[in-house]
């Protein structure tokens, strides 16, 4: 048994800090919650109201533009049609809305932080351990304060998803910018480009494959959170998996699980295709 005189606990400190946060910034968190809830409910309503054939056509157009391969496009559209055929279309749209909102927030946070980390060694030194914690800390741990601040529902699910999914994008944005050839940057400096011109004209375009890989990883990690998100009130395919677990309905859980896999495959192929070099028709 470990000696008690060497033991201590940080639980009281953390609880006091969270309580103080709730008391002082409760109104701000409520406003943020209402804004995010409006955004996700509006997007979800739009996706669910759109005709299924229009959604499939839109996905097909995006897939063809990304891959320039008709066979891959037809396979993606066919897989999504299969999800609708087993009666999970509405749940698919709910999951897609949650994932899109979480991914957009992760992109808005991750890319600027990655750029700042690439420009500041001190910030990178402070940021990397924090990203390690965000990726390795069990999601149920940071669900507790998120639930205290925002309650049950879609909003805490979005925040939990962003915390889990943003680190890969920050890391890969930082990596992509730092890997831009020094000779290229020296040439740009010689032509008198300022920092903004260097960033938007050279660094970001050259780092785009790495950034797209980060967006791809962020999207995949966001999808991996849908079942956990369903435990705190988020609807969608994760809820179907959870119901399958609770009722020991293997078939129901398998259908929803395969639907999540299909959505992940479609998004993965599209984002990977956009992250590659310029497309060649017929390939």
TrEMBL record:
<feature type="transmembrane region" description="Helical">
    <location>
        <begin position="95"/>
        <end position="118"/>
    </location>
</feature>
<keyword id="KW-0472">Membrane</keyword>
<keyword id="KW-0812">Transmembrane</keyword>
<feature type="transmembrane region" description="Helical">
    <location>
        <begin position="70"/>
        <end position="89"/>
    </location>
</feature>
<keyword id="KW-0813">Transport</keyword>
<feature type="transmembrane region" description="Helical">
    <location>
        <begin position="206"/>
        <end position="229"/>
    </location>
</feature>
<protein>
    <submittedName>
        <fullName>Proline/glycine betaine ABC transporter permease</fullName>
    </submittedName>
</protein>
<feature type="transmembrane region" description="Helical">
    <location>
        <begin position="36"/>
        <end position="63"/>
    </location>
</feature>
<keyword id="KW-1133">Transmembrane helix</keyword>
<feature type="domain" description="ABC transmembrane type-1">
    <location>
        <begin position="92"/>
        <end position="271"/>
    </location>
</feature>
<dbReference type="InterPro" id="IPR035906">
    <property type="entry name" value="MetI-like_sf"/>
</dbReference>
<feature type="transmembrane region" description="Helical">
    <location>
        <begin position="139"/>
        <end position="166"/>
    </location>
</feature>
<comment type="similarity">
    <text>Belongs to the binding-protein-dependent transport system permease family.</text>
</comment>
<keyword id="KW-1003">Cell membrane</keyword>
<dbReference type="Pfam" id="PF00528">
    <property type="entry name" value="BPD_transp_1"/>
</dbReference>
<dbReference type="InterPro" id="IPR000515">
    <property type="entry name" value="MetI-like"/>
</dbReference>
């Amino acid at each position: 048994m470990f000696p008690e005189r060497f033991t201590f606990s940080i639980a009281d400190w953390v609880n006091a800090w969270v309580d103080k946060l709730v008391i002082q910034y409760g109104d701000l968190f409520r406003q943020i919650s209402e804004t995010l809830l409006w955004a996700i409910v509006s997007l979800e309503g739009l996706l669910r109201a759109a005709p299924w054939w229009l959604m499939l056509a839109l996905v097909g157009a995006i897939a063809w533009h990304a891959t320039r391969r008709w066979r891959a496009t037809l396979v993606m559209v066919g897989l999504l049609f299969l999800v609708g055929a087993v009666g999970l279309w509405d749940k698919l749209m709910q999951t897609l809305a949650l994932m899109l909102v979480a991914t957009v927030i992760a992109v808005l946070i991750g890319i600027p932080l990655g750029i700042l980390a690439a420009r500041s060694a001190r910030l990178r030194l402070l940021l990397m351990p924090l990203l390690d914690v965000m990726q390795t800390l069990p999601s149920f741990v940071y669900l507790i304060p998120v639930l205290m601040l925002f309650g049950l529902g879609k909003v805490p699910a979005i925040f939990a998803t962003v915390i889990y999914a943003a680190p890969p994008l920050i890391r890969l944005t930082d990596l992509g910018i730092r890997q831009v050839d020094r000779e290229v940057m020296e040439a740009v400096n010689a032509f008198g480009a300022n920092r903004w011109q260097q960033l938007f004209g050279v660094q970001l375009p050259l780092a785009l494959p790495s950034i797209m890989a980060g967006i791809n990883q962020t999207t995949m990690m966001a999808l991996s959170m849908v079942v956990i998100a369903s435990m705190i009130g988020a609807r969608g395919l994760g809820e179907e998996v959870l119901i399958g677990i609770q009722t020991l309905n293997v078939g129901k859980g398998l259908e929803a699980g395969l639907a999540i896999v299909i959505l992940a495959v479609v998004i993965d192929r599209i984002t990977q295709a956009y992250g590659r070099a310029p497309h060649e028709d017929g390939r």
